[in-house]
Amino acid sequence: MSEILRKQFLQHVGQTSPEPMLVEVERAEGVFFYTPEGKPYYDLISGVSVSNVGHANPAVVEAVCRQARDYMHVMVYGELVETPQVEYAKLLAEHLPGEIDSVYFLNSGAEAVEGALKLAKRVTGRPEMISMQGAYHGSTHGAMSMMGGEEHKSAFRPLLPDVRQIRYNNFDDIQLITTRTACLLVEPVQGEAGVIPPAEGYLEALRKRCDEVGTMLIFDEIQTGMGRSGELFACAKYGVVPDIICLAKALGGGMPLGAFAARREVMQALTHNPVLGHISTFGGHPVCCAAGLAAARYILDNKLVEQVEAKGALYETLLADHPAVVEIRRSGLLLAVELGSSERMFAMMAMFKEVGILSDWFLYCDTAFRISPPLTITDEEIRDSAVLIRQCLDRL
Fold first, then answer.
1. Where are the domains of the chain?
2. In whole angstroms, what separates CA 124 from the centre of its chain?
3. Which of 72, 257, 274, 304 is most buried (most C-beta within 10 Å)?
4. What is the CA radius of gyration of the chain?
5. What's the pTM value of the predicted model, to 2 decimals?
6. pLDDT averaged over the chain?
7. Counting runs of H as helices and runs of E as strands, what totals does the chain give?
8. Of the candidate ranges 9-23, 115-129, 172-186, 311-325, the one whose mean pLDDT is the lowest
């Protein structure tokens, strides 16, 4: 990276940490991205579970170019019928669980959460919202109000009132969901807590309690959706159907796209009293929907989801026996490799940069590093990247 570009980056691009990685990306393809010097990096986070079909997937690139030639923004939410948006909503409705058949497209996961919270309050007329300790749902004020870590939200208070948090996988806390609770927002697999799968029967118990007291169950599948867990949606993997599901990240095939989905009669609540109950200028942008539709079709046509569990298990097998690895927590091709201390984890990050691996840690778990590569990663690439990881583990 030139010194001029480095200085411009630090001066003019908003920063999120005091020590950015400062690796320049020239191009990306498949599971790799490359610097201008030609150094390859294994992308083992795929934009935080975004690039599920790999970088520069030809099907997605062609869909983007084709749609950009036809039209880009006209007016997304209004009276206009835009083919890529309609076709993608139909495809999702055909694969979403239960009777969920209506999709509201937005720009991001945080916006999807915001829309889902509003819908639940509108439908139930109740004030209280419940989320989980250790949860991450986004950085906007409403989504942050539902976030699990006080460290990351205390500086921005006051946030939404009437928000309660319960402990994930704690069956006793389920009774705190009552008839004044509009919604329970939960990740089927907690991501930023360090990949924590649900205890046996836990999601079923949440569903049962919500049904008993009339609370809407919202699943945040922003990270687990579109095949990451080993099913197209994690709720199918664990056999529980929510009332509302939030999607983003891989939903757009690399373009910015989020959505919340519910039964049509539920979603209709946003059309009256007041009208325009939820609106978005760019949500469901035709180019983003075209990209997402192409990516979803690629996932389905190439049966990527059916390969996810074996690929995740291969990573686990290749790394779990290393003496520096305390444990591996996994759901499909989303892994947390636990090292037992933040010092060891941050040492791994420095070594990863040297050998050509992009990984990171978890917002509420800085003792483990993340492995969530594109679902297109081959067994050979898994084995090769695992060799590099083990070389770094040897140096700890």
1. 3-52+304-395, 58-301
2. 27
3. 257
4. 21
5. 0.96
6. 96
7. 13, 15
8. 9-23
Distance of alpha carbon 34 from alpha carbon 114, whole angstroms: 36
CATH of domain 3-52+304-395: 3.90.1150.10
Question: Bridge partners of 345?
Answer: none
Closest CA to 372 of 364, 360, 354, 380: 360
Q: In the CATH hierarchy, which fold is given to the domain comprising 58-301?
A: Aspartate Aminotransferase; domain 2 (3.40.640)
The answer to whether 55 touches 254, Cβ cutoff 8 Å, is yes
The encoded tokens of residue 354 equal 């040297």
Of 231, 380, 225, 233, the closest CA to residue 314 belongs to: 380
Q: What CA dihedral angle connects 356, 337, 369 and 330, to 10 degrees? A: 110
pLDDT tens figures, 308-329: 999 999 999 999 999 999 999 9
- Rounded to an integer, the average pLDDT of 27-43 is 96
- 92: nearest Cα among 268, 324, 259, 265: 259
Q: Is the pLDDT of residue 148 over 90?
A: no
What dihedral do alpha carbons 299, 232, 318, 386 form, nearest 10°? 50
More confident residue, 1 or 329: 329
CA distance 122 to 326: 45
User: Averaged over 146-171, what is the pLDDT?
Assistant: 92
C-alpha to C-alpha distance for 53 and 61, rounded to whole angstroms: 11
pLDDT on residue 200: 97
* Cβ atoms of 222 and 22 closer than 8 Å: no
Instruction: State residue 78's pLDDT score.
Output: 67
| Helix axis angle, 286-301 to 83-95, nearest 10° | 40
Q: Amino acid identity of 249?
A: K
CA distance 236 to 95: 10
The DSSP annotation for 251-288 comes to GGBTB--EEEEE-HHHHGGGGSSSSSSS--SSTT-HHH
Please give the structure tokens belonging to residue 106. 């937005």
Characterize the bridge pairing of strands 258-262 and 244-247: antiparallel
**Residue labelled with tokens 């806390």:** 173
* Range 388-392, long-range pairs (CB < 8 A, 24+ positions): 388/42, 388/355, 388/356, 388/357, 389/319, 389/337, 389/352, 389/357, 390/318, 390/319, 390/322, 391/355, 392/348, 392/351, 392/352, 392/355, 392/357
CA 232 → CA 60, 125, 295, 303, distances in Å? 18, 32, 12, 10
